[in-house]
Amino acid sequence: MTVFDEVDAEPANRLPATATITSVSLLVSGSQGWRRHAEFPLLGASSNT
Fold it and tell me: Per its UniProt entry, which superkingdom is the organism in (predicted)?
């Protein structure tokens, strides 16, 4: 097994991954790099974090 095979296999050992997503962020690129422009709560998402 090569190093590339090991690197490729590593994430597969941790899948599937699960998470609770409560919002998504809109990022914009400007002269000083990326920044969060807005955040949007998802419908049905609990605000308990």
Answer: Bacteria
